[in-house]
What does this fold into?
Amino acid sequence: AQRVTQPEKLLSVFKGAPVELKCNYSYSGSPELFWYVQYSRQRLQLLLRHISRESIKGFTADLNKGETSFHLKKPFAQEEDSAMYYCALRSSGNTGKLIFGQGTTLQVKP
Amino acid sequence: NAGVTQTPKFQVLKTGQSMTLQCAQDMNHEYMSWYRQDPGMGLRLIHYSVGAGITDQGEVPNGYNVSRSTTEDFPLRLLSAAPSQTSVYFCASTHDGGSYEQYFGPGTRLTVT
It folds into this structure.
């Protein structure tokens, strides 16, 4: 079964602290994984995708096939990082479908 | 480009009423999807389309219908609204079925009483 799990509903950190948002997936084959972010009163938008191996707004995510994980990390959290974060897996087949995790709310306190 | 647009932004329905949520995109994307967002459940796929005239069911299709008569439009119909359909609905589109970015609409917040 194809599944994405984000075990934390809420992650609360202080400004300047490191952040790690956890994501685990279940998929047979080579997964394609994404992180989407939803800031308050804004629409959902792509943050980063694993195939690009990029850093966006200081965030990085490494695909670990052995642990079936794609955790999102940032060394120093900023207040503007407060948002809902979704990990997503591209469903098999050329359909444009994404399978989302439950989402984690990141709260960065001043 | 307006991107992905959705109307209405808010809607309140009584149980048993029907309505259509509108979604349109002006990016000439072939792939369009409808998701619902519920607390603790993430986004769940309702229906999707890989091109005009082609639709298929997602994870939670019961109680919803879709059609795709044009590339631009992908309306979602609630046949007989139920309180369990209270949710935020998002429409999304993407260039193809591969690793391209999905573009989301602003959402429709629906309450069924």
Notes: The CA atoms of residues 2 and 92 of chain B lie 13 Å apart. Chain B is about 0% helix and 50% strand.
